Amino acid sequence: MAKKDIFDLFREKASELEQEPTPQAWSRIERRLQANRPSIRRTPVRRLPSPMGIAAGLALLMGLSVVFMWLAEAEQQTPVLAQEQLQFEVEELVLKTAKDDEVAALVEIAQANPLPKPVKPIVEGNANQRLVAKTDHTSQPIEITPSRIDSNTNGQAEERASR
Amino acid sequence: MTEAELIKACRVLDPLAQRKVYETYSPKMLGVCRRYLKRAEDAEDALVEGFCKVFTNIKQYTGNGSFEGWIRRIVVNECLMALRKKHALKNAFEIQEHFDLRDNQNVVAELAAQDILRLLNQLPNGYRTVFNLYVIEGYKHREIADLLNISINTSKSQLILAKKRLQQLLLENNYPGAEARIRKLANG
User: What is the value of ipTM here, to two decimals?
Assistant: First the structure.
């Protein structure tokens, strides 16, 4: 047997010292590696919102509120606009042109029926005087006493209408 | 798949390649851990930490030197960190008188790997760590001094003490030589 340093033997034998680890060892490593690996993909979901994320959220909120305020303002303005539009709805006037013979007929009718002459207004006299109605030629006056006024006013009116 | 292809796949975090690397090297690396850490649970913890570092830092492996050696260095470092966390190295480096090592006896050829583990586990943490690093891993005293944050002389003396203690243990365990052992068995 060759003389050999005992500790060389230790080195040689130590390399044979193998042992199968438990299955848990690999699952632990796997879990650790998975926690590290998709850090780029997972962090947006898992990490707490970053300051930049909060800022973005606030900006979005402000933007939305501005848009809603603007919309509310626009809604208030709409009735005014509607009124203005109504002013532009103009009535249409249709001009009807009459023919010449029709006009001539109308003129004839107008000439045949002249407007009655204005009647002299009745001047109201004193209560104790007598009202006397005169015809053109008859000298006989018709005496109207206050007691007969009611029955005769109708007759006077008829007389005037016939003229 | 060659080792180079495997490493390349590990660089792009291919889970299958990582699994393959783990399956290839984990038994050997757990053997390494067991030499440093007595408790099986501690050894496996160090193994898990070590392989996590292997996979997350795989881009730092330049291809100079063997891949196994690179993994082993990481795993050994993990074991040392575990020892440091447990303060196992703190008071282990008391400097004692130097022993004169007599000539080594003829050694049993069939010293089993498990026997080595058992013997190492009987050493104090400091002795065992330096012995592991120097004799088995092949580090220089200067490197060991840096790794453990001790002086070079402490490293040297620890090694001598470790060897002395191991010789004693071998004697106690009837390992001076195969012939003696067989004789003893025949007599017994």
Answer: 0.74
Handedness of CA A20, A25, A30, A33 (dihedral sign): negative
**Partner-chain contact B31 A19, CB within 8 Å:** yes
A18 touches chain B (CB under 8 A): yes
In eight-state DSSP terms, residue B188 is: -
The residue among B22, B19, B66, B70 whose CA lies nearest residue B44 is B22
CB A132 within 8 A of CB A145: no
Residue A152, SS3? Answer: helix
| Predicted local distance difference test score (pLDDT) of residue B161 | 93
Residue A29: pLDDT band (50, 70, 90) is very high
Contact partners, residue A146, CB within 8 Å, separation at least 6: A127
Determine whether B113 is exposed, middle or buried from the number of CB atoms within 10 Å of its CB (0-12, 13-18, 19+).
middle
Distance CA A95, CA B174 (A): 140
DSSP letters for B118-174: HHHHTS-HHHHHHHIIIIIS---HHHHHHHHT--HHHHHHHHHHHHHHHHHHHHHTT
> Cβ atoms within 10 A of the Cβ of B89, count?
18
Query: What's the pLDDT tens digit per position in A55-71?
Result: 999 999 999 999 999 99
- A19 vs B15: CB contact, 8 Å cut-off? no
Report the Cα–Cα distance between both ends of chain B, in Å, rounded: 53
pTM: 0.56
- Phi, psi at B161, each rounded to 5°: -65, -40
**Chain A residues within 8 A of B106 when measuring between CB atoms:** 1, 3-4
The confidence score (pLDDT) of residue A122 equals: 66
